[in-house]
Design the sequence.
């Protein structure tokens, strides 16, 4: 017979340990969309550069640029949330009773979010204007020297976040089986 350190009340469905595991698993499953937003935004930035380089129409360039900004801001018409709309939801999803896990919170709210915000700012304030001016060399430089490093920093933080949340989940599961 396995002796459990946690009471049955703590581990039963709806119990504190059960809820902690669910919260941590929810963080992992819900935080994975941010890389999707920034992956898609990164691909959109490159598509914008390719379109400008190929001499696409002003309308097509505007369409691609607006799509990249909708990935940040959301799309009211299609009710699709953007990165900025989802970030507060991810922050609220953090378990309130896991103060011993400041690393998870830091990775979610600062380490991954700050480069993502800088990436979106570079898109709006540097890349789109350069493309609209027809300065393809400058646009290529902005992507290579500014946006790709920010994308890589964001992705690294997301990978670390998923690993930290997985470690915490396994720790809580081990606590149940003590």
Sequence:
């Amino acid at each position: 017979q396995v002796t459990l350190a946690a009471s049955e009340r703590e581990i039963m469905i709806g119990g504190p340990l059960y809820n902690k595991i669910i919260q941590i698993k929810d963080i992992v499953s819900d935080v994975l969309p941010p890389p999707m937003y920034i992956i898609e935004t990164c691909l959109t930035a490159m598509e914008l550069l390719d379109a400008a380089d190929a001499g696409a129409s002003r309308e097509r360039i505007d369409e691609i640029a607006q799509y990249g900004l909708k990935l940040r801001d959301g799309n009211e018409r299609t009710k699709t949330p953007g990165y900025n709309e989802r970030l507060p939801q991810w922050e609220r999803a953090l378990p309130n009773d896991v103060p011993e896990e400041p690393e998870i919170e830091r990775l979610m709210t600062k380490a991954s979010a700050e480069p993502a915000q800088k990436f979106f700012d570079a898109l709006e304030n540097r890349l789109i204007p350069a493309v609209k001016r027809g300065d393809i060399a400058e646009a290529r430089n902005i992507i290579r020297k500014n946006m790709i490093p920010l994308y890589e920093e964001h992705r690294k933080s997301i990978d670390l976040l998923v690993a930290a949340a997985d470690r915490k989940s396994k720790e809580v599961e081990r606590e149940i089986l003590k």
Remarks:
- Residues 1-5 have pLDDT under 50 and may be disordered.
- The CA atoms of residues 103 and 164 lie 7 Å apart.
- The first helix runs from residue 8 to 11.
- The two ends are 12 Å apart (CA to CA).
